[in-house]
């Protein structure tokens, strides 16, 4: 059985560090402030935003939700982002995705001040990540959290073969860049990849972000691999499950993240960490 990477415990540890830094900033009269823009009535988006607000308040971070109906125009939304950019009390801005079809998500991302980019998706920040210039640069929260997990468990990517399944801007692409920056040899696989199993069986570090429950089985994993499961799916009984068949794969892995209590808790934790960092960098 591989060692379980306890994301929930690590998230709690990092939250304590963040809370201490927030208190130090408050002693200087500075209150970290995260503004979240929420559009429409998507139930999942509302749950995510509510959880973010609760965590922020728990850590002493000011959280403002700017809510709009699904009929909002792109011009109105861009105007709101401009207002938040100019508001000196706001240190971090996040636009909850997905957005309705009349709004260009890239335009919205581009409108956010890179110095207030809580998600790390702005092209300026993605470019800095690719150039390995990540000092004072926000990075996508889930990949940043995964790198924290590897560090905590003394898993050094240097010289390792890493395979990332998924090429989204949220996980796959920034994850690959972070692993490259850590001197891993990285392969990015996706829905058009042929002979996927031949790649995954070579991976020393396997990061799976497909959105397909139990997509990776034991015969696709190298003995002793580090397996990071980013998936969050619901089975027929409504139980949360990952993209990796945990029961099958865990006996072969050296380290593995469970679902739940693996990568999931780290994402909001790193958003709070990033909000605090953006606050410090703005001083």
From TrEMBL:
PROSITE patterns: THF_DHG_CYH_2. Its EC number is 1.5.1.5, 3.5.4.9. Residues 5-119 form the Tetrahydrofolate dehydrogenase/cyclohydrolase catalytic domain. Keywords: Amino-acid biosynthesis, Histidine biosynthesis, Hydrolase, Methionine biosynthesis, Multifunctional enzyme, NADP, One-carbon metabolism, Oxidoreductase, Purine biosynthesis. GO terms for molecular function: methenyltetrahydrofolate cyclohydrolase activity; methylenetetrahydrofolate dehydrogenase (NADP+) activity. It holds the Pfam family THF_DHG_CYH. Homodimer. Catalyzes the oxidation of 5,10-methylenetetrahydrofolate to 5,10-methenyltetrahydrofolate and then the hydrolysis of 5,10-methenyltetrahydrofolate to 10-formyltetrahydrofolate. Belongs to the tetrahydrofolate dehydrogenase/cyclohydrolase family. This is Bifunctional protein FolD. The gene is folD.
């Amino acid at each position: 059985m591989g060692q379980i990477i306890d994301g929930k415990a690590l998230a709690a540890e990092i939250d304590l560090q963040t809370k201490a830094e927030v208190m130090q900033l408050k002693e200087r009269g500075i209150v970290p402030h995260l503004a979240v823009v929420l559009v429409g009535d998507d139930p999942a988006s509302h749950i995510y935003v509510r959880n973010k607000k609760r965590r922020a308040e728990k850590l002493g971070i000011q959280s403002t939700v700017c809510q709009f109906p699904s009929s909002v125009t792109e011009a109105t939304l861009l105007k709101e982002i401009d207002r938040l950019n100019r508001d000196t009390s706001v240190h971090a801005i996040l636009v909850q995705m997905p957005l309705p079809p009349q709004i260009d998500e890239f335009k919205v991302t581009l409108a956010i001040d890179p110095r207030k980019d809580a998600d790390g998706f702005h092209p300026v920040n993605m470019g800095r990540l690719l150039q390995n210039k990540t000092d004072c640069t926000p990075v996508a929260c889930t990949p940043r959290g995964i790198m924290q997990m590897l560090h905590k468990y003394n898993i050094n990517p240097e010289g390792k073969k890493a395979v990332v399944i998924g090429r989204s801007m949220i996980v796959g692409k920034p994850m690959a860049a972070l692993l490259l920056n850590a001197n891993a040899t990285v392969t990015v696989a996706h829905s058009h990849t042929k002979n996927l199993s031949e790649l995954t069986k070579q991976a020393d570090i396997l990061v799976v972000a497909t959105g397909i429950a139990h997509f990776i089985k034991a015969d696709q994993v190298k003995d002793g691999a580090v397996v990071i499961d980013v998936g969050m799916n619901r089975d027929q009984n409504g139980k949360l499950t990952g993209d990796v068949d945990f029961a099958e794969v865990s006996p072969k892995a050296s380290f593995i993240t469970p679902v739940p209590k693996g990568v999931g808790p780290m994402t909001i934790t790193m958003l709070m960490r990033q909000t605090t960092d953006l606050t410090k960098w703005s001083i």
